[in-house]
Each structure stands twice: as structure tokens, then as C-alpha cells.
Design goal:
about 300 residues, alpha/beta, Arc Repressor Mutant, subunit A, D-Maltodextrin-Binding Protein, domain 2, 8-stranded mixed β-sheet, two-stranded antiparallel sheet, 10 strands, rod-shaped, DNA-binding transcription factor activity, DNA-binding, transcription regulation, HTH-type transcriptional regulator TrpI, LysR_HTH_N
């Protein structure tokens, strides 16, 4: 029993009343009713078996016993407030680190970074290239922006932004040799792909009703690239037909650098914002939700 303590809520009500000299002022500061503070003070009187306050006109003053309690409680709550303020300031001043694959960073996010910084200056955004193939697993990231297929793991919060669409693209000269009404003419040319998205060509071929065995044979003779940037440059150079997320080649399609003879198809993947457990202060909803809403708005342009 010697180590027992009264409820912290009662001590908090006592500290505020002692500091402000008024139950009403303490209630206002704590955002509770006058009666709630009075009940907390009475519970402390009962706990200690002595009166901690005495009336003085319209206010209250500490008794001898109250002064003894205030000497320790006041200092303790002051240090608590200081510790909370320092942590809150550190969290708010720390940058929000967004990780994403290099191709997504270079071909979609970087052209929009200036607008993002301007519209969300309080985020203090720092962007890094993902160092893992598993979204949400980069230890130094506040969030990860990446394409991925469900189901999602239980230890992260996933904000789905848009479904992934992929398309087969080629240079205008090579695309002119393809029949938009016959996707099988694809196999008259070299297939280009990246090792990081092996499921892309099968998804596309299946949606087009093509034989997967024929696709596998074509891929065996095709050309792989480590990064999507190199893949796209190879397609622009006319080295073959590449497969890529439509989001990352939209500028090339608009400018005419690339052509998608057969349009695009939707895959099971989604572009998502991956967040660690929201118990992590650096990914508190107050910081991540504005970014998610900004991304949705930008993707909807």
C-alpha cells in the first residue's frame, strides 16, 4: 500500500486547481465540468484523509497538506508537459519520408514534387528510392508509394489510390507494323520486360485472349531490363514492344514518343500508399491523410 497512488486524473485536477487557484479555471483548462473537478478533489481528500484546499473568498488556497502534495505534483506535471511538448515538436519538425520505386519516382512523382511541396509545406516531405521489393517494409520510411496486389499484410495500413492499368507500348514506327485488331501480331516483334514485374505480360496476354505458351516462347527470346526507365528507352529506340503501367507512360503516349496499339487493361494490382502501424507517431493520420488525399486528387487530374 505504501507504493499505491491515487488516480492520475485526480492528481491532474488537483495540480490544475492549485496552479490556477480556481476549480472553474481548472475545469476550463482540462475541458471538463466544474462538478467533475470538484469530485476529483473530494476523492483526493478521501484518499489522503485530509483536506487539501480551504476556501478563501471566492477562490481556494492550499492547506499545509495540499502544499506538501503540490511541491511534488506540480513539478511532476511540469516535466510531463515539457516532455510532451518536446516530443510533439520533434515529431512535427521531422520530415515525412516517402519511399517509392525509382521508376515511379522519376516518371510520375518528380514532375509533381514542386506542386506537392507547395500545397503541403507542413509535411516537410523527403523522398527516397525504395530499397526493398516489399512495400511498407522499408524501416526508415514514413510511408511507401507502390504498385502491389492484394491481399495486404496485417501489420500495415494500406490506402488504395487507383487500380493499375498496363499497356503494351512501342515506338510509332514499330507500332505501325502492329495490327490494333489482332494482338497476336505482337509476337512478330521482340518483347521487352523488367524482371521486377514478371506478372505484367501474362496479365496483359490473358486479357487479350492470347496463348500463354506462345507468350512464354516470345519472352524467352525477348530482352529484359533491370529498371523500367531503361525498358522505356529501349521501346522508344524501336528495340521491341514493352509492357508498362499506363500511369508511367502517359506523358510518352501524349507526346507521341510511344504508342499503345491495343489500349490498356486493368490488373489486380493497385497503386497504394503503405503506412506502418498508426501507433508510429511519424505516420500519424494527421500527417499521412493529407498526403493520401493529395495523391488521390493528383491521380484524378
Amino acid at each position: 500500500m505504501h507504493n499505491s497512488m491515487p488516480p492520475l486524473s485526480a492528481l491532474r485536477a488537483f495540480e490544475a486547481t492549485a496552479r490556477l487557484g480556481s476549480v472553474t479555471a481548472a475545469a476550463d483548462e482540462l475541458s471538463v465540468t466544474h462538478g467533475a473537478v470538484s469530485r476529483q478533489l473530494k476523492s483526493l481528500d478521501a484518499y489522503f484523509g485530509v483536506a487539501l484546499f480551504a476556501k478563501a473568498g471566492r477562490g481556494l488556497v492550499l492547506t499545509h497538506h495540499g502544499e506538501r502534495l503540490q511541491s511534488g505534483v506540480g513539478d511532476a506535471f511540469f516535466r510531463l508537459r515539457e516532455s510532451c511538448a518536446v516530443l510533439k515538436r520533434d515529431v512535427e519538425e521531422a520530415p515525412f519520408t516517402l519511399a517509392c520505386p525509382g521508376s515511379l519516382l522519376a516518371r510520375w512523382l518528380i514532375p509533381r514534387l514542386d506542386r506537392l511541396h507547395h500545397e503541403l509545406p507542413e509535411l516537410k516531405l523527403k523522398v527516397v528510392v525504395s530499397d526493398t521489393e516489399q512495400p511498407g517494409k522499408q524501416s526508415d520510411a514514413s510511408a511507401t508509394l507502390a504498385f502491389s496486389e492484394p491481399p495486404w499484410p496485417d501489420d500495415v495500413d494500406v490506402v488504395e489510390l487507383i487500380p493499375e492499368q498496363i499497356c503494351a507500348v512501342a515506338s510509332p514506327q514499330l507500332a505501325a507494323q502492329c495490327d490494333p485488331a489482332n494482338p497476336a501480331t505482337l509476337f512478330d516483334h521482340t518483347l521487352l520486360y523488367t524482371a521486377s514485374r514478371p506478372q505484367a505480360w501474362p496479365h496483359w496476354a490473358n486479357a487479350q485472349g492470347l496463348e500463354l505458351t506462345q507468350l512464354e516462347e516470345a519472352l524467352d527470346k525477348g530482352q529484359g531490363f533491370e529498371h523500367l526507365y531503361y525498358l522505356m528507352e529501349a521501346a522508344v529506340a524501336g528495340l521491341g514492344v514493352a509492357i508498362a503501367p499506363k500511369l508511367l507512360v502517359e506523358d510518352d503516349l501524349r507526346s507521341g514518343r510511344l504508342v499503345a496499339p491495343w489500349g490498356s487493361i486493368e490488373t489486380p494490382a493497385r497503386l497504394c500508399l503503405w503506412l506502418p502501424s498508426q501507433t508510429d507517431l511519424l505516420t500519424h493520420p494527421r500527417r499521412s491523410e493529407p498526403l493520401a488525399e493529395w495523391l488521390k486528387g493528383e491521380l484524378g487530374r
